Recover the amino acids of this structure.
């Protein structure tokens, strides 16, 4: 048996409407809190939208001990705007334009973000960033790292969280830059581009940033198992099956229903089950100064098979056996 | 107007049964000859199968001036076997095991191919090779090149044709090794991995070897436009739409219906229309000592839109406009 204390998922896409109702309970069942990303069809860019989205999430997860941690979609903000929204958010999420689902209105010229970053530093609002810059798909994260490093130098008190790391180079940056942190997904611990298209092509393993090379995955695994500045963010990102199994397949993997069991499998395989609490909760709480609701999540070592479909969505690891199961949450 | 004399497609998958009947006429309409690959559901591994497959192809293309150039699926062969089949084939096609569609029975240990390669050298039977070795998907062609170079050194009189080049490194090998040649597809002249999954994921652009980096595509373009040891092989590889728009999407792009018009577009954009005859016919004929049937293919500069579907198959460039059209073949 394994007990996790107040696990938090630091990167989730809970969507809206019927999809929110379908997927949010999976996150709320297994986690005490989760960081809700703001890239809705209309991005969440002010306090009113933050509060309204928060209400929708709470309505979808009624009955669970669960706290949605809200984020604001980065745009140029005034000090007044940031002051008004600060009590309601964990941080501001920056998307370079066009890098993933609903990021069309993201930042086109990264330099132009700096005045707002200066205000965020002053007000102590963390920056969460989709760390990719324009370029060849396998290079985009590496191309963004000099930008991240420049921002860290220009705004030394700003906390920067690189979301969903995928490369070895990004891991090494964490060691060089003081107030820089990172999330790692479940699927980037397990996949390389070989899994996506090295054999037949697998739309349900297609995500952004794309899974990279074996040596990148190895570096991510080492970081997840041991790096104090790294914490779990699933980037669970459901799309209906019709949007995945079609030309123009949408990017995203719905991992919420399997996240904790699959992480327990992974940490156990690496003889590091004792590090899982740090990865799924303590390290994030330390970085953000978070105090999530108290919740004990008990996993038992018992094989089960991941369903092939959850509503309209094919979950990550569909049809695969997992060795741990979430037994009870109290 | 543009007239091509006896264009040949040096790499086609014509399939079997109803798919053969559907797709072969597109190749037979526009080309004087084409190299029919032997990776059928039961690979073509002896003279009897070669002749029977050739009959099936001829039946499917009745009425066209067209010569199928047959190949044998590589396995360990005796001298007697190779002597018996030699009059009926252009060459022997080697697939490393598991690298593409119906290659499961290919060569698992590349070193064990050498006794047969020695016989092929002695009998002057060209080797056509799917040049990928086991490894990370983006590296597989580069990993195969030392094998190709070793074979060229060990069998200096063996003609080796590297099929469907995808990397800059492979292009440079042609300059170092005397009797080594290569085919290049239409789609590898136009695509990089960015097109396949840099935005949304496009199953109809998924092929093996996978499209590579921009600098690789640039090197392929330069080679197609000017390199005397390079010639056209479309690797046209139809799959029914259900096999493409699904998990476990099959690898292959059906380019036969658009090959010559799209190549004319490409060569015209690069102000090299006068080099197209060499790429689609003369260079291959010189390398192989081929004498394809006489056939004049006339293209006119006239915009048309590629159909969105041809029978059960989505063709390459479906729905896109092309500036050249095949007008008449005599």
């Amino acid at each position: 048996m394994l007990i996790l204390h107040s696990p938090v998922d630091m990167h989730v896409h809970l969507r809206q409407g019927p999809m929110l109702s379908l997927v949010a309970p999976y996150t709320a069942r297994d986690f005490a809190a989760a960081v809700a990303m703001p890239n809705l069809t209309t991005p969440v860019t002010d306090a009113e939208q933050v509060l309204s989205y928060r209400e929708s999430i709470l309505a979808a997860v009624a009955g669970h001990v669960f706290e949605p941690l809200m984020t604001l979609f980065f745009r140029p903000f005034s000090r007044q705007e940031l002051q008004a929204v600060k009590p309601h958010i964990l941080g501001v999420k920056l998307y370079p334009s066009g890098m993933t689902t609903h990021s069309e209105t993201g930042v086109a010229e990264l330099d132009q973000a700096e005045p707002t970053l200066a205000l965020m530093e002053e007000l102590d609002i963390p920056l969460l960033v989709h760390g990719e810059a324009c370029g060849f798909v396998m290079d985009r994260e590496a191309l963004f790292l000099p930008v991240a490093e420049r921002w860290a130098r220009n705004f030394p008190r700003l906390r920067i969280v690189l979301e969903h790391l995928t490369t070895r180079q990004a891991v090494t940056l964490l060691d060089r830059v003081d107030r820089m942190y990172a999330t790692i997904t479940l699927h980037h611990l397990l996949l390389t581009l070989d899994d996506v298209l090295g054999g037949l092509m697998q739309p349900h393993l297609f995500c952004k940033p794309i899974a990279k090379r074996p040596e990148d995955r190895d570096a991510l695994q080492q970081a997840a198992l041991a790096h104090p500045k790294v914490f779990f963010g699933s980037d669970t990102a459901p799309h209906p099956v019709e949007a995945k199994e079609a030309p123009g397949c949408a990017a995203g993997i719905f991992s919420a229903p399997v996240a904790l069991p699959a992480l327990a499998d992974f940490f156990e395989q690496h003889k590091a089950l004792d590090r899982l609490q740090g990865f799924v909760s303590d390290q994030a709480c330390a970085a953000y100064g978070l105090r999530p609701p108290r919740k004990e999540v008990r996993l038992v070592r018992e094989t089960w098979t991941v369903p092939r479909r959850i509503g309209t969505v094919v979950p990550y690891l569909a049809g695969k056996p997992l060795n741990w199961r979430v037994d009870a949450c109290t």
Notes: The mean pLDDT of chain B is 96. Chain B touches chain A at residues 136-138, 192-194, 196-198, 200-204, 206, 210, 213-214, 245-251, 314 (CB under 8 Å). The longest strand of chain B covers residues 296-305.
